[in-house]
Amino acid sequence: MRRWNGWGDEATVVELPAHGAAFLGARLGAGQVLPDASLEQVLAQVPASRLAAHPLISTDAEVRVRHARGQSLPDWLAMREGRFGQFPDGVALPESAEQIRQLLAWARAQDLVVIPYGGGTSVAGHINPQASERPVLTLSLERMTRLLELDEESQIATFGPGAAGPQVESQLRARGYTLGHFPQSWELSTLGGWVASRSSGQQSLRYGRIEQLFAGGKIETFAGTLEIPTFPASSAGPDLREMILGSEGRFGVISEVKVRVSKLAEQEQFYAVFLPSWEQALKGIRSLVQARVPLSMLRLSNAIETETQLALAGHPEQIALLEKYLALRGARAGKCMLTFGVTGNRKQNALSVKQAKQLLKGFGGVFTGTLLGKKWAENRFRFPYLRHGLWAAGYAVDTLETATDWGNVDNLLNQIEDSLRAGLAEEGEPVHVFTHLSHVYGQGSSIYTTYVFRPGQSYEQTLQRWQKLKHNASQTIVNNRGTISHQHGVGRDHAPYLAVEKGELGMAALRSLADHFDPDQRLAPSVLLETHE
Amino acid sequence: MRRWNGWGDEATVVELPAHGAAFLGARLGAGQVLPDASLEQVLAQVPASRLAAHPLISTDAEVRVRHARGQSLPDWLAMREGRFGQFPDGVALPESAEQIRQLLAWARAQDLVVIPYGGGTSVAGHINPQASERPVLTLSLERMTRLLELDEESQIATFGPGAAGPQVESQLRARGYTLGHFPQSWELSTLGGWVASRSSGQQSLRYGRIEQLFAGGKIETFAGTLEIPTFPASSAGPDLREMILGSEGRFGVISEVKVRVSKLAEQEQFYAVFLPSWEQALKGIRSLVQARVPLSMLRLSNAIETETQLALAGHPEQIALLEKYLALRGARAGKCMLTFGVTGNRKQNALSVKQAKQLLKGFGGVFTGTLLGKKWAENRFRFPYLRHGLWAAGYAVDTLETATDWGNVDNLLNQIEDSLRAGLAEEGEPVHVFTHLSHVYGQGSSIYTTYVFRPGQSYEQTLQRWQKLKHNASQTIVNNRGTISHQHGVGRDHAPYLAVEKGELGMAALRSLADHFDPDQRLAPSVLLETHE
User: Fold this and answer.
1) FAD-binding PCMH-type domain location, by residue (chains A, B) (predicted)?
2) Which of A12, A70, A116, A5 is nearest to A381 (CA)?
3) Hey, where are the domains in chain B?
4) Which tens digit of pLDDT belongs to each residue from B389-401?
5) Which residues lie closer than 8 Å to B411 by C-beta, 6 or more apart?
6) CA B253 to CA A477: how far, in whole Å?
7) In this predicted structure, what is the pLDDT of residue B314?
8) What is the topology classification, in CATH, of domain B39-140?
9) Of B207, B271, B385, B448, which is the active-site residue?
């Protein structure tokens, strides 16, 4: 069963290995464990619903608890402490576009706020109810998960918007196809959520971001149904798909998603290469992508992430052997691990691997074969579970991310890491910070930074620490030519920083669209665009 | 010097070869030649300008004539007859974003209509002044053509919006780079125009459409300057780039364009393959693109286009030899020519060519090497000149285009060709119609149809013939799941058909943006969105 106060299925437990605990202990001091609340304690706080009875709406307390929070660190702290703040007044569970339209009409008649809800995996406060005089209805798409149609000739699949990653892939794979969209949240996040938040998957280098995969579909708005046809491309004015991508529930509820799918590839493999320094590694990864070598994924850990990953892997003897091998070949302290993947037919893959190896050799790359790549692939969705292991050991972990042009990647990365590393200096608390680049483009790269710190004496103090770290890093990002998000979206947490990149005029344009589709600001108010009265 | 009443430079003359004239004569009857007006006759019609004097604005009659019309067939007929209808009251020639802002402020103060003007190559009525109580100022970007900055690390080039294809490429090639955007209008059309109309180039398979190449820039609007930063990707809400792409001058004037550029490739080659039938050819091209063989261009002519091209090539003996060779290998009557290109490093290109040949062999493909491919590359921008040769021989030619999903390509193509072929049946006039697919995607393809017909006894009758053909074909397209344009844009000619694909709600959303950026409907009124009062 899915955890009510954390990530994923209860059956999956990822503990922090002893070696990893020692590694963190040496850097952050002994862990600080805070007490967890029980589900019963939380259920006792759920107030009476303000909603009239409706056949499609559950007002059950546990259902409301389970749809009240996402997966940001503030969400985590609230769930662990058992102080949820607001709960939705009810959770609607429609099974069709028609039922979504009925629910929206009812919401207008009853003067409700409506929060569209996919997998509940937001790390930016997309789905948290706010205190509101209007009752809050969370509209979950979890019953709309089916593959409705697969056009094999056009390679377009039509899905219910609530299909989570495994539901998408299993239904497609049964027919020989894949969407190829694998965000780290893949186990729980949904197709509709990916579209609404402009998600990106680990193999975007081959399959594209959700912007490239989203072919069209239906969006139910308070101004009517928007139906977006599936042209492969068009020059007929601004693209309506792009209006919905990143709309984060503000303009409407996605009721049907059409996606561009691919035949399952003949072969897929992942390889690890170690580069002797960050400088060399950065040049290597940029050269690879700018040379258009047809790879399906690229992920470059900086030196601290490489060191941390090897420490947390939990096999110190094997790691020691690996490090000895690498050192002999020139990759010593400061080395950076680059993982790359090829997906396609065998001959093309062989050429791609050969060209990648050749090119990386020019930057001192030490090739280690497929073993570590296989490990990466096996564990690609496990990282979110590690928050549990770290928390139990007395450490809080969060991530943040951006993207910028190549000419600014190193600068911005350093500024972000510095801002986090020094963020709790006033309190004398160290912060362990490391980074990888995992979505690379001809023009630049995403920057994905993880930071680990000790909780304070209380939940409140812990939240304050997070707020300080997050605010400083967010300011650092937008003031240094980074986007406030490359793959997590805006939500409420990033909304205050959005105007720096969109400009006041751009913000006003987005507001004019929100006013057009949702004149009463009934949908996910203050998400994406801060509330304006 | 550029022709005032037709395509391109006066020095370039493309005549219809005798063999081609005979071919058309057999299909359409003897040509019907209509008399051309002289520039002097046209200049005599230009009325006095209604504009006050302004240092950045020319009210010279010839300048106004040269900015009054695009390159649609109605434009051609108007220019040839010398009945231009409306002229702009003046042409502004700014040299900087600051001057554009000054001109917009002046236009507001003077209550003018403003038409942003790039290369004047619109084939959909984007830049034609309409009768208007407000004086009309055409704002030409032809003095803003410079490469302002080239960030080689991030592979981003900053250009003035008025840079035409050759200006873009020559400035980049001098530094070892290419944009790789080659629409057929490349010699005259401009970067700003490509962005505003969502253009696509012949090698979009490698370089992407202008949507993928446009990285950001500046747009001067009546609500202020919109500055779009250059992130490689972002999930921070709807993408403002996509709001400007396809805005066709309705929202603002593009004053600076940043584009994603590539290093010049080591090798580029084009090959021709003949497929024995349209059915086989269609399957072949779809297989190629769905298998993701890294090609840089694909163009498939249907049987009639193949036959027409070979007839119009003007070397009947050589063509006869080619046809003999093809027939021996199974490509006889009904054969279809497929041209494909590879651009990249030699090893990758060799593998791509090998895989393409192998795959096409499975569909009966007869490979002919690089000779015809070279011809295609040499002549890739000559087709628009052929209108002159055809007109002189007494034939009118026009093209129209759309895109649709693979499952609908054959159906839509046939419907379009049928509608054109039978379009003048009431008058007993045949129409020669042929088609190619030149932009292919995993999900579908563009459909590019050329139609040749005889002018009537008068210009008026000729225009009526065109209107009938164009209207029927446009209806056919939008009523059969095609987009009203894959690469030419909407302009005024396609605006009446746009609502079928955007829906009333989508149209209203676009209108809300137009109202936001241009509340007085001063910019290119009735382009893209029909005027609404």
Assistant:
1) 84-264
2) A12
3) 39-140, 147-263, 267-378
4) 999 999 999 999 9
5) B480
6) 29
7) 81
8) 3.30.43
9) B448
Task: Give the per-residue pLDDT at B533.
Answer: 43
Q: Sheet harboring B147-151: ordered strands across?
A: B147-151, B156-159, B253-260, B214-221, B224-228
Class of domain A37-140: alpha beta
A85: helix, strand or coil? coil
Residues 6+ apart with CB under 8 A from B38: B82
Residue in the block written with tokens 């057009």: A516
**Nearest-angstrom CA–CA distance, A1 and A12:** 10
Average pLDDT over residues A168-182: 98
Instruction: Establish if B242 touches chain A: CB-CB under 8 angstroms.
Output: yes
> In Å, what is the CA distance from A252 to each residue of A51, A123, A340, A525, B509?
21, 20, 38, 12, 13
**Residues 368-407, chain B: which have Cβ within 8 Å of A?**
403-407
Q: Which of residues 153-182 of B touch A (CB under 8 A)?
A: 153-156
CB atoms within 10 A of CB B359: 16
Tell me chain A's radius of gyration from C-alpha atoms: 23
pLDDT in tens, B422-435: 999 999 999 999 99
**pLDDT digit string, tens, across residues A485-500:** 999 999 999 999 999 9
pTM: 0.97
Per the rule left: phi > 0, alpha: psi between -120 and 50, beta: everything else, A352 is: alpha
Cα A72 from Cα B368, distance rounded (Å)? 59
Architecture of domain B147-263: 2-Layer Sandwich (3.30)
Which ranges of B110-228 does DSSP label H, i.e. alpha helix? 165-173, 191-197, 204-207, 210-213
Which CATH architecture best describes the domain A383-479?
Answer: 2-Layer Sandwich (3.30)
Compute CA distances A348 → A268, B213, B517, whole Å: 11, 26, 48
Confidence of residue A532 (pLDDT cuts 50, 70, 90): low
Q: Using CB atoms, which residue from B199, B351, B404 is nearest to A231?
A: B404
3-state helix vs strand vs coil in chain B, percent to 5: 40, 20, 40
Secondary structure of residue A272 in the 3-state scheme: strand
Q: Measured between alpha carbons, how far is B308 from B302 in angstroms, rounded to an integer?
A: 10
Show the beta-strand stretches assigned E in B236-309: 253-260, 262-263, 267-275, 297-301
The answer to whether A351 faces chain B, any CB pair under 8 Å, is: yes
Residue B423 counted as an annotated binding residue: no
Please state, in angstroms and as integers, the Cα–Cα distance from residue A79 to each residue in A68, A391, A491, B109, B154, following that order: 9, 13, 19, 59, 42
Interface probe, candidates A234, A296, A497, A512, chain B, greatest B C-beta count within 10 A: A234
User: Which of A409, A416, A454 is CA-nearest to residue A434?
Assistant: A416
pLDDT at A127: 98
Residue B177 falls in the annotated catalytic set: no
Would you call B279 exposed, middle or buried from its count of C-beta atoms within 10 A (0-12, 13-18, 19+)? middle
Helix axes A383-392, A73-81, angle to 10 degrees: 50
Q: How far apart are CA A281 and CA A274, in angstroms?
A: 8
The pLDDT tens digits for B30-66 are 999 999 999 999 999 999 999 999 999 999 999 999 9
The neighbouring-strand residues paired with B227 are: B218
- Looking up tokens 């209805």, which residue turns up? A137
* CA B255 to chain CA mean position, Å: 21
Question: SS3 breakdown of chain A: % helix, strand, coil, rounded to 5?
Answer: 40, 20, 40
ipTM exceeding cut-off 0.85 for this assembly? yes
Q: Tell me if chain A has a CB within 8 Å of the CB of B346.
A: no
Q: What angle do CA B426, B431, B435 make, to 5 degrees?
A: 135
Q: In terms of CATH architecture, what is A267-378?
A: 2-Layer Sandwich (3.30)
Asked if the domains A37-140 and A147-263 are classified in one and the same CATH topology, the answer is no
- What digits encode the pLDDT tens for the residues A347-374? 999 999 999 999 999 999 999 999 999 9
